Amino acid sequence: MAEKAANLQFGGSKGLASTFENAALEQEASPLKFLLSLYRGNFANLFVSLLFLLIKSAPVYVLPIVTANIINIATNPAEHSIRGIWINFIVILIVILQNIPTHAAYISFLSRAVRHVEAGLRSALVRKLQQLSINSHRELPAGKLQSKVLRDVEAVEMMSKQFMIALAPAVVNIIVSFIITLNSSWIVSLFFVLTIPMSIAIVTIFRRKIRRSNKEFRKEIEQMSSRVSEMVEMIPITRAHGLEKVEIARIDSTLRNIQGKGYRLDLVEAYFGATNWVTFQIFQVLCLIFTAYLAYQGQIQVGDVVMYQGFFSMILASVTGLINIYPQIAKGLESIYSIKEILVSQDIENNSGKRKLSEVRGEFSFEGVELSYPGSEHHVLEDVTLNVKAGECIAFVGASGAGKSTVLNLVIGFLQPTGGKVLMDGIDLADIDLRSYRKHLAVVPQTNILFSGTIRDNITYGLREFSEEHVKRVVEMANLSEFIDQLPDGLDTMVGEHGGKLSGGQRQRIAIARALIRDPKIIILDEATSALDNESEFHVQKAMQELIKNRTTFIVAHRLSTIRDADRIVVMKRGHIVEVGTFDELMASKGEFYNLKQLQL
């Protein structure tokens, strides 16, 4: 029910995120227009919020008038009665008390719009991160991405609030004060107008410095976030080799850079704020002298001096507020640039309009496949031709860099060949909606990734419907029963972050159970046992035998003894296939495979 309510409030996360992605593409050149486009569908909330802003701000406009009235009555009792003072008192009291409900209403409608943008931006970023190609994720540090999703969205949210909580009231105060002053004295109102070019001049002088300082500081924060993320991942290695001081020094170097950039940013903002304050204090004193002179000449009453001073103070406070929030706005605009780096990225996996698969047999054909990375003339794969029958087990072997894992990435669809074709059931993978294809595929990598949760959660990850009997059967097939029976909470045992409470073999068997429960037609095993001890490898091998039954299987292995039962072994060297055959055939031929096997003896 809560989820339904949230979707109603935010218009559905998927549609909302798509709207924000489109806005980023449409308004690529203008962060302010991009920000405005984020509020589409929420202009009614902003308008109502603005109305309540006008009402709640009434005491600010009325108080100088009431003050002037009371002073004029008190200084000229012959023409006024005491009743006038009480009337003015009651009026200002009512106007002040109404601020409580109207302020709450103002914030309520404003918050609906701002929180909508905050949720939508994060949703759009998360969706985009899921769409980016694997190459993009390899190039973008995780810490930098986290900084964009958390810090940059927060900066945009704060900028939005500043627009509505500080900027909008300031603009309204300036307009209302000017209108009231103009209605009373056009000469004084002309003096007020002089504040506008002065404020523009101050912003113009400091704009570039503030923007440059914000950009440098933002990049240093992203760099720090990335390095802290790496540091946390590396703690076991750091501790094991006694490199704590080295790692601390590396992080301290980054922190010193942030300290320097932050100091320069603070200094620029300090000069900006001080220049602004001094300039407008001088203006306020000049206003007081000017209106006092008019009162001395008898052109205005004494109380009007206080009223004009009050309105001019209001205008100066508003202009000062506008100028003081400029650094916050500059930070938000810089964060918009940062967010749009992700939202406008075209390096995505595009499945739009491609063929969706409901069933697969698992037959593959590599036809003259070539692969080279952008900007490199070196071919990672060259003229790879191979036919794989449905249900066949194919093992790839070869030295590091031979192209084995690259072939697996082609099968998964993480990479697209730059030459030739990869056909699955006679269909070019480039023409298939890879999301529908991957529902029939399971991957067990060398270093398996578990999330913080129970063993059951990790096995059934992503499944909506499953029976307890099915889970137990899969646990048994994955050779996990004995291990789970020894745990006090069984399948409901928490595995810790990244499965840190489990051994490598236990994590691999959970990964195999995760694959088995989906009953895939295609299995990818990438060095699934290379990091395990002999006992763990024995248990994982037994689980793998269950996993690959009647399924098309692609295996990459360095331990050649583990692929003895593969239907065929493909030997790769420098991106080429040099040998294909069974274990016994390749050993008998005494070729490349035989040489590799001899090196492991």
From TrEMBL:
Membrane topology (UniProt): Multi-pass membrane protein
InterPro entries: AAA+_ATPase, ABC1_TM_dom, ABC1_TM_sf, ABC_transporter-like_ATP-bd, ABC_transporter-like_CS, P-loop_NTPase, Type_1_exporter
Domain ABC transmembrane type-1, chain residue ranges per copy: 47-331
GO MF annotation list: ABC-type oligopeptide transporter activity; ATP binding; ATP hydrolysis activity
ABC transporter domain ranges (all copies): 364-599
Major localisation: membrane
Subcellular location: Cell membrane
Spans through the membrane: 43-65, 85-106, 163-180, 186-206, 270-294, 306-326
UniProt keyword list: ATP-binding, Cell membrane, Coiled coil, Membrane, Nucleotide-binding, Transmembrane, Transmembrane helix, Transport
UniProt feature coiled coil, ranges: 207-234
A GO term from the CC aspect: plasma membrane
Taxonomy, superkingdom: Bacteria
Name under which the protein is recorded: ATP-binding cassette subfamily B protein
Lineage: Bacteria, Bacillati, Bacillota, Bacilli, Bacillales
